[in-house]
């Protein structure tokens, strides 16, 4: 009976050892799979970090380019605004000068008209004097 029980226990022990070995193999396989997955995820993380770094670099470069362009446009706008202000000032001066010249021309035309009228009267007087002097001794 003891021999039979011992045999039965040995067989059960062998079965349990076999199950233990199978379970250890499965655990080792799972550990290996998990290690592979961990390595794969680490590579993926490295790739994504590299892509992120490149994107940040590209974005910073793009932002720098935009800042430079904005500064250039701002400087250009300021220059154009100054030119516009200067042109408006020049236009105002030219309009004022034009008004003065028009006024001067108007006065000179009036003077010329008066002088022409006076000259006409003087001619008439000279002609009258000549006609009178021709009849008078």
UniProtKB/TrEMBL annotation:
Coiled-coil stretches: 6-33, 63-97
InterPro entries per the UniProt record, alphabetical: LEKR1
Keyword list, A-Z: Coiled coil
Protein name: LEKR1 protein
Protein's organism: Ploceus nigricollis
């Amino acid at each position: 009976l003891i021999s039979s029980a011992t045999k039965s226990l040995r067989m059960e022990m062998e079965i349990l050892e076999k199950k233990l070995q199978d379970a250890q193999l499965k655990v080792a396989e799972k550990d290996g799979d998990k290690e592979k997955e961990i390595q794969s995820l680490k590579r993926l993380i490295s790739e994504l970090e590299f892509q992120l770094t490149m994107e940040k670099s590209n974005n910073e470069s793009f932002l720098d380019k935009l800042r430079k362009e904005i500064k250039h446009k701002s400087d250009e706008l300021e220059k154009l605004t100054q030119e516009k202000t200067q042109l408006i000032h020049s236009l105002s001066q030219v309009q004022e000068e034009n008004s003065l010249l028009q006024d001067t021309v108007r006065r000179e035309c009036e003077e010329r008209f008066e002088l022409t009228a006076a000259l006409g009267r003087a001619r008439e007087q000279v002609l009258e004097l000549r006609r009178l002097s021709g009849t008078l001794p």
